[in-house]
């Protein structure tokens, strides 16, 4: 059986966890939390990185830092995971969904401006499959209307837009280290902070609303509750696991990219024959091989292909059901303009097995089965 996903293990995880147990510092913000944060800061150039218990929590922290209030509106794509919307809806905001581009599956930057109202507070671009949104246009719109930008870069670590790492272009960036991501700590994430003025408040929010971080740095002689916050700090055990993978990030990237390129090469004839569509990578984007997907003719063909591949012991999955069609989406949000592509394209997309260590032989088997289906 070729699994859809196998969580990465690269070596070094057990040794790092054993080190944590030896140090007897198991709660967060110890040796490995600091090492992970420093690695991301050095790699991306962001002003500050705070590890979190999930990308969901990183996005919730961003919503708190933006002081999202009931009645505010947030512009985002409907084709995304529920956490993108939940972080702001939990604060009482309305999710305003815009249509996607059919080529990248990212939010259509040309539709953002018409979705803006006096209540709009932020734009939340989602970098689908680790391929960047058109960030120059989005940032120009944000500057024009004095809006904040929160990048959902859950799938975007080690991807860039015009040479800039995803998650560092907007005011805040949110990474995921879930077991389905390129680099994993099981459950976890990170908040990337662009402006140094936001660091202090972010530390308070993450430490349950206390100034505990300043206390540990010796800046104050005691810590206390100073603002609303929550517990977003991951365990040192998770951070130790993550750091082993960060140290092998390039190896993971190279391995996944090899599989991605092989898929593309083997399936390109089907695209040339008009049977399927393959991912599109804009020239200004460098992606991270987070996923490889194909687009079938329609949902019926996709369902038949999933069944066919399953019979050949190949696990494939489709992705998001558009949020605006979900019960919570209808209650907590609205779609701006026409749903020209969001639903249509989401019903065609099929994700193929992709993980570190997948190997050429498995890629070849998947490709051959897809070719056989279309013969």
Q: Overall pLDDT, averaged? A: 97
Helicity level: 25-40%
- 3D shape: globular
Radius of gyration: 21 Å
**Sheet of most strands:** 8 strands, mixed
**Main β-sheet, spatial strand arrangement:** 1-9-8-5-4-2-3-12
When the domains are counted, the total is 2
**Terminal CA distance:** 23 Å
Which CATH-level-2 architecture of the largest domain?
3-Layer(aba) Sandwich
Topology order in helix (H) and strand (E) letters: HHEHEHEHEHEEEEEHHHHEEHHEHEH
Number of helices: 14
Amount of beta strand: 5-15%
What do these coordinates show?
The structure is a single chain. The protein has helices at 13-23, 31-44, 55-65, 82-89, 112-115, 135-145, 199-206, 212-216, 236-246, 249-272, 299-311, 327-332, 342-346, 360-374; strands at 48-52, 73-77, 94-98, 120-123, 148-152, 160-161, 164-165, 172-176, 189-193, 285-286, 293-295, 333-335, 349-351. With 375 residues, it is of the alpha/beta class. The protein has 2 domains: 13-246, Aspartate Aminotransferase, domain 2, CATH 3.40.640.10; 249-374, Alpha-Beta Complex (Aspartate Aminotransferase, domain 1), CATH 3.90.1150. Strands 1-9-8-5-4-2-3-12 form an 8-stranded mixed sheet, with helices on both faces. Strands 7-6-10 form a 3-stranded antiparallel sheet, with no helix packed on it. Helix 1 (13-23) packs antiparallel against helix 9, helix 3 packs parallel to helix 4 and helix 10 (249-272) packs parallel to helix 14 (360-374). The protein is globular and about 75 Å long. The model has no long low-confidence stretch (mean pLDDT 97).
């Amino acid at each position: 059986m070729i699994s859809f996903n196998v969580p990465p293990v690269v070596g070094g995880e057990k040794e790092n966890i054993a080190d944590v147990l030896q140090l007897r510092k198991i709660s967060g913000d110890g040796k490995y939390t600091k090492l992970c944060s420093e690695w991301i800061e050095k790699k991306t150039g962001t002003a500050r990185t705070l590890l979190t218990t999930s990308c969901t929590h990183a996005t919730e922290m961003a919503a708190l830092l933006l002081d999202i209030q009931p009645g505010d509106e947030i512009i985002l794509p409907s084709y995304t995971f529920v956490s993108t919307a939940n972080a702001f809806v939990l604060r009482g905001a309305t999710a305003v969904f815009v249509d996607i581009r059919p080529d990248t599956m990212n939010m259509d930057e040309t539709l953002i401006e018409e979705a803006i109202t006096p209540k709009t507070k932020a734009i939340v671009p989602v970098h689908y499959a680790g391929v960047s949104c058109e960030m120059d246009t989005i940032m120009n719109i944000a500057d024009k209307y004095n809006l904040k930008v929160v990048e959902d870069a859950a799938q975007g670590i080690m991807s860039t837009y015009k040479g800039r790492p995803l998650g560092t272009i907007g005011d805040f960036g949110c990474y995921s280290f879930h077991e389905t991501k390129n680099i994993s700590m099981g459950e976890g994430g990170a908040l990337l902070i662009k402006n140094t003025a936001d660091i202090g408040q972010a530390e308070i929010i993450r430490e349950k609303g206390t100034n505990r971080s300043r206390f540990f740095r010796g800046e104050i002689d005691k810590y206390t509750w100073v603002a609303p916050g929550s517990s977003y700090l991951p365990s040192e055990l998770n951070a130790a696991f993550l750091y082993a993978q960060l140290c092998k990030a390039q190896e993971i990237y190279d391995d996944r990219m090899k599989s991605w390129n092989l898929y593309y090469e083997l399936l390109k004839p089907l695209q040339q024959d008009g049977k399927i569509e393959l991912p599109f990578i804009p020239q200004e984007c460098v992606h991270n091989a987070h996923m490889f997907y194909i687009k079938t003719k329609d949902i019926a063909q996709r369902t038949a292909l999933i069944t066919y591949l399953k019979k050949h012991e190949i696990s494939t999955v489709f992705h998001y059901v558009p949020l605006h069609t979900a019960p919570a989406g209808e209650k907590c949000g609205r779609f701006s303009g026409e749903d020209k592509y969001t639903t249509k394209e989401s019903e065609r997309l099929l994700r193929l097995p992709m993980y570190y260590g997948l190997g050429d032989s498995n890629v070849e088997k998947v490709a051959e089965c897809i070719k056989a289906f279309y013969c």
